[in-house]
Amino acid sequence: MIKTLKLSNFTVFKEAELEFSPGLNVIVGENGTGKSHLLKLAYTILRTEATIAEKSSASDFTHDLDEQSRDVFGDSFKHCLRQGVRNFEITSSWGKSGVINITLTKVNEIAYIYNSKNYVYSKVSLPLFIPPKEILSIYAGFRAALKSRELAFDLTYLDLAEALDNAPYKGEKLAEVQPLYAPLEELVHAQVERDAVGNFVFSKQNATQQKVSTHAQMAAEGHRKLGMLSYLIKNGSLRKGSSLFWDEPEANMNPKLLVALARAITELSKIMQITIATHSLFLLRELEILQQEKALVGAKYFGLHFSDDGVTVTQGEDSNSIGDIAALDESINQASRYLCLNEEE
Description:
This protein is α/β, with parallel strands linked by helices. It is built from 9 helices and 14 strands. The chain has helices at residues 35-51, 58-72, 139-148, 155-164, 171-188, 221-234, 255-268, 281-292, 326-344, and strands at 2-10, 13-19, 24-29, 87-94, 98-106, 112-120, 128-130, 191-194, 200-205, 211-215, 243-247, 273-278, 300-307, 310-316. The N and C termini lie far apart (55 Å). 42% of the residues are buried.
């Protein structure tokens, strides 16, 4: 799991320092405030640590981190310099004792120098990143294309496709995770499976107790996203000690599904670290309700805010601690405009 991120001149952030919860972390902000940047940076750091050799040096880690950033951010970290500056610094900690401090200096228009220090290895499991676009309905051909062709999709999509390729548990192991995935399958009214040619299908019994399977392309996108989450639990890609990063989980989900999603995220955060970036006031409020009900404990909230000098970060243990929330402000403004229209009538 990621523990801390301290940034200087990284993309839109002049200075930022984040301390993450080992359970649920919620990042809230307007478009362009760097929510996805934070998710991808934390993901790339954990992915690098999960794949690097145990006896690697600080320079080895930095080299691998830069290489992996090409696939996650689209190019190396040199393009993550905040506009108009000549250096950035990243300090991060993770796992039991992992830490790294990295400085990048821009010498001229084509030369960059990395300096890394204080690296301490601490093994972590391979993290998982779920982007806003679902891939369950196009999985079979999409995975093959990602591996063999130059497509405009970043590494998070290939990693997710590889995670979906794992076969589900059987027997006792499947029974152990049943309390986590069963509520999701109840919501989509089906079991998520793979057919003989590798496509995902939603299977259920009809009135005559015969098994009927429907291709994932025919399912609603909100159901596909919940079905994907269910399958990742069933095949062990999401398990105790995992780190999940989810960008806009609310995309294409109606309020009824968001209520269920909030509960699913809450339950999963009890055994793994989950970090989400969201625009949804509805999802945020559902999580707050779960906090009030004591079902969600130890969550951390981060508010990203535009300022005259980049984006600032506020943080706290509830959404009231992170400053103004654009989604709430606009919801209030809309309600006021609607009431004014009715008064005019």
